[in-house]
Amino acid sequence: MAAVPVASPEATPADGRLRITEIFHSLQGESDSLGWRTVFVRLTGCPLRCTWCDTTYSFHGGEWRDIDAILDEVASHGARHVCVTGGEPLAQKRCLVLLRRLCDAGYEVSLETSGALDVAAVDSRVRRVVDLKPPGSGEASRNLWSNLDHLRAHDQVKFVIADRTDYDWSVEAVRAHAIDARCQVLFSPVQGTLAPRDLAEWIVADRLPVRFQLQLHKLLWGDRPGV
Length: 227
Fold this sequence. Notes:
This protein is α/β, with parallel strands linked by helices.
């Protein structure tokens, strides 16, 4: 078995600090890393206010942590996969440093980002999961469409869908921007709002080149933080 990555010995305090809501060890519940043991680093703060957001507790508070200390805690869990999430992690500029340091340490790193902030400077080794916002989110006007130009085959674009209007909008977005030709496309229902079966049947009926997903962590542990 391959050794679990450890923090780089070249780490320096000059890399600074980030405001952290929580760091926890669980199973990845979404994306193409579904089911892998993963350490989640949840950064505090978000400039968006999506109607269906399930992490509003990360908007405020948190504590400042040195990036060295963050890497030490990540290493303590012995997982190869690390997901940097939020809130909106890119709202903190030093998130880019954390992502690079995690990649340098040998982790499989993913970034969950709203799609409202520029991803161009994100380390190319990171799997970027860009969450484009349909109208039902209340934040569709914030989508930064130029982000699509920076995506690679290992990245993903996610649409969280609340109703048929959101679905039709998402289908048109995939087709108009040929997103499925750039990277994997994920369609997810808003929990408790859109029946998963309805979304699955729409995808099948329309023969869409997208991947249906449910939030595995919520099926296992319910709607609570830290899982």
